Amino acid sequence: MALPALSLSLQFARFDGVAEHRAALPRAFVVRCLRRALERDAELTVRIVDADEGQALNRDYRGRDYATNVLTFDYAVEPVVMADLVLCAPVIAAEAKKLKKPLAAHYAHLLVHGALHAQGWDHETSEADAEAMEARETEILATLGEPDPYR
Predict the structure, then answer these.
(1) Which of 33, 39, 139, 149 could lock onto 111 through a cystine, CB 3.0 to 4.6 A?
(2) 3-state SS, residue 78
(3) Considering the domain 6-143, what is its CATH architecture?
(4) 49 to 16, 40, 46, 104: CA distances (angstroms)
(5) Closest C-alpha among 71, 24, 28 to residue 47
(6) Which pLDDT score is estimated for 151?
(7) What radius of gyration do the chain's Cα atoms show?
(8) Distances (CA, A) of 110 to 2, 69, 78, 118
(9) Residue 111: what pLDDT?
(10) Over 90: is that where the pLDDT of 25 sits?
(11) How far apart are CA 5 and CA 24, in angstroms?
(12) What is the pLDDT of residues 48-57, one digit of tens each?
């Protein structure tokens, strides 16, 4: 089965420590993670940001005044998925350290998570939806050689 086509803009904001995040996110790795999570062709922007930008976006668009790991701004699902995924580098690094996971492995999970959101998956609507999304993430990550992020 052919994987969906992906048009990707991968962007890194300027912040202290950005080199570590660039190293963990080579373009081919990002493309591989996203294409495995996509059910149809997509045009995505992935932007890696610092805590200030992450917090401002979360506050301004979700009314939550803190930096979160990933934000998905979805614009279209059909016929092509169109979305922006914003990943907050300091939050992701802290979570990876706490979880004792390599930074790239945590990024893989959050890229998949964000791509599923871009396609309409939502874990905040019900427990059943959360379980279904977690199961799908686990399935996709297994195809990438990554362990179950919820264990």
Answers:
(1) 33
(2) coil
(3) 3-Layer(aba) Sandwich (3.40)
(4) 11, 27, 10, 16
(5) 71
(6) 86
(7) 14
(8) 23, 8, 22, 12
(9) 98
(10) yes
(11) 23
(12) 999 999 999 9
Q: Is the pLDDT of residue 91 over 80?
A: yes
Q: Which helix (H) or strand (E) holds 31?
A: helix 27-37
Cβ burial, residue 15 (10 Å; 0-12/13-18/19+): middle
Domain range list for the chain: 6-143
pLDDT score of 1 more than 80: no
Measured between alpha carbons, how far is 54 from 33 in angstroms, rounded to an integer?
22
Matching residue, tokens 């940001």: 49
Considering only the C-alpha atoms of the chain, give the largest distance between any 2 of them, rounded to a whole number of Å.
Answer: 42
Residue type, 108: A
Is 120 in contact with 39 (CB distance < 8 Å)? no
Tokens of 100: 């004792």
- Helices and strands (H, E) in the chain, number of each type: 6, 4
Angle, CA of 42, 46 and 51, to the nearest 5°: 150
DSSP H or E stretch at residue 128: helix 127-143
Question: What pLDDT does 133 receive?
Answer: 97
Q: What CA–CA distance (Å, rounded) separates 105 from 8?
A: 20
